[in-house]
Amino acid sequence: MTKILMVCLGNICRSPLAEGILKSKLPQPGFIVDSAGTGNYHVGDLPDKRSIQIAKKYGLDITNQRGRQFTVLDFDNFDLIYVMDESNYKNVIKLARNQDDVDKVYFILNEIYPEQNHSVPDPYTGGIQGFENTFKMLDEACSEIALKLKNNK
């Protein structure tokens, strides 16, 4: 069983989309995909209505997800931790207890732009097009992740 965690700031825009997209690309059982935020702003909340709308457009239902905050225990519970941007990376790494924890954390867009540490733009303050663009970036990255994970099984 491989466990993957997607992390953004509030866990209502980018990471819920990444969770939903990756889940749709991986066989069940065999993989667990979850998401979290580095901030506690939206704990218990549904994903942003625009994330829900874009996911639905592409045949994904993310309405069963609820916001939660990343914790140190996530290093124990997950094999891979994908962050959306540099700020998320720094906030997650601050909680790392050792090099094993650090070695689990990756920039998600490095899957398509290796070692460039590009950020997935946060669409929260923009319109629906930002969510569409975010979905497309995450879909491409998640396709690469799924391919690697399925080939390693």
Helix and strand topology:
Blueprint: E1 2-8, H1 14-25, E2 31-37, H2 49-57, H3 73-77, E3 80-83, H4 86-94, H5 99-102, E4 105-107, H6 128-152
Parallel strand pairs: 1-2, 1-3, 3-4
Helix pairs in contact: 1-6, 2-6
List keywords for this structure.
alpha/beta, four-stranded parallel beta sheet, 153 residues, 14% strand, single chain, 6 helices, 4 strands, Rossmann fold
Give an account of the 3D structure.
The chain has 6 helices and 4 strands; from the N terminus they run βαβααβααβα. A 4-stranded parallel β-sheet has the order 2-1-3-4, with helices on both faces. The protein has 153 residues and is an alpha/beta fold. Strand 1, helix 1 and strand 2 form a beta-alpha-beta unit. The model has no long low-confidence stretch (mean pLDDT 96). Helices cover 42% and strands 14% of the residues. The chain is globular, with a radius of gyration of 14 Å.
The name of the CATH architecture is 3-Layer(aba) Sandwich
Count of helical stretches? 6
Number of strands: 4
Strand content: 5-15%
Helix proportion range: 40-55%
The total number of structural domains is 1
**Series of H and E elements:** EHEHHEHHEH
Give the termini distance in whole angstroms.
Answer: 9 Å
CATH superfamily: Response regulator
What CATH calls the topology is Rossmann fold
Low-confidence stretches: none
The major beta sheet can be summarized as:
4 strands, parallel
Estimate the global geometry from the Cα principal axes: globular
Strand order of the largest sheet: 2-1-3-4
Q: Quickly name the level 1 CATH class.
A: Alpha Beta
Structural class computed from helices and strand pairing: alpha/beta
Task: Output the radius of gyration.
Answer: 14 Å
* Overall average residue pLDDT: 96
